[in-house]
Amino acid sequence: MNLSTAARAVRGSAIRDLLALTAPGRAGATPVISLAGGLPAPDLMPRERIAAAAAAVLTDPSAIQYGETAGLASLRTVLVDHETARCGRPVARVVVTTGSQQALDLVARAVLDPGDPVVVEDPAYVGALQAFQAAGATLHPVPLDTGGMRVDLLEHRLRGGLRPRLVHTVPTFHNPRGVTLAAQRRGHLAALAEEFGFLVVEDDPYDLLSFDGASPPPVAAHTDRVVRLGSASKVLAPALRIGWLHGPPELTAAVERLKQCTDLCTSSLTQAVTADLLADAGWFDAHLRHVRAAVAGRARAFTAAVAQHLPGATCSVPAGGMFCWLDLPGVDTTALLPRALDHGVGVVPGSAFAVAEPAPSAIRCCYASHPAPVITEAVRRLARAVSRRAPRALRAGT
Ligand SMILES: Cc1ncc(COP(=O)(O)O)c(C=O)c1O
After folding, report:
1. Whose CA is nearest to atom 16 of ligand 1?
2. Which of 280, 311, 329 is the last residue of a domain?
3. Which domain holds residue 220?
4. Stated pTM of the model
């Protein structure tokens, strides 16, 4: 079969493959506690409130009709208000997408021609890499540190002649590294976008999951050379498949045309449900407070268990979001994976997110998906899986 260049350019996501291996009920194996997927906790998703909203909106037949490509007016109104408040400047138009993953794909298709340079973080969100690869982009990785993307290194490359069309960043509670782009670096990135004429893709689905106070103002607060992406997946439920974007009008118009080719419109039903939930400000604020506090407790349980059972590991300290990036010095984490699964725990090896830097001893763990005692047990199992392979420093307290 002769596949297109675009289809051949996209590497499958190791993480989605792992989801199949760690799915509950897979035949004949120890049940696995998965820290692998970026799955919001089932027990924190507001199923009853979603059911009530669905019952209410289904009294109107338009809830199951085709809708406008740009999205349901009532949902766009709440999103415009939210983004205007977050960016500290008027946001005129928001386009609803089928998850923010669709926004990444549509933006890549709207802006990129084959061979165009795109700057990505290293390690990177794999779904973004796939969207850019499908568009034929040439990837230029820039490393991260505890303050997020090394914008100073990006500047160095730009001064050296690199001219990207797009610079992709996950600025808040990064997937997979867990770090947040420092306030000063957000301003710096915006200034570079203006000086060098590129567009920043501000991919910010974890923005609302801060454990303690608000995150720094978005990059879109500093410049309009940004397409900013949001998502309801991490704060409400991924199955709603509600994402959104806003940015330069020419771009959002192109995105709408491309979205017509892809799916005509996002589900009217889940848009109406999401609008109902987000517009109920008292309920939504209380829900967010509950989710943040619960996930913060899980993050504390995770880091405490790592300190106890894997004392040689270095672990980013989560301030929000769902992920912790663990370095297990001397451990080949790709080789560790089958052994970890045998011990009943799933994690993602750092290599799955690597663009240029191989991250051979790193793993990404999602601490958000299970209650604290389950997270602690998962780390115990991981430590047992590590203990046979690790250098002496890592073997303790298992
Ligand atoms: C950084 C980032 N962007 C986008 C997405 C896509 O999310 P969704 O399509 O559910 O909005 C994810 C999902 O994990 C993500 O981590």
Report:
1. 175
2. 280
3. 48-280
4. 0.94
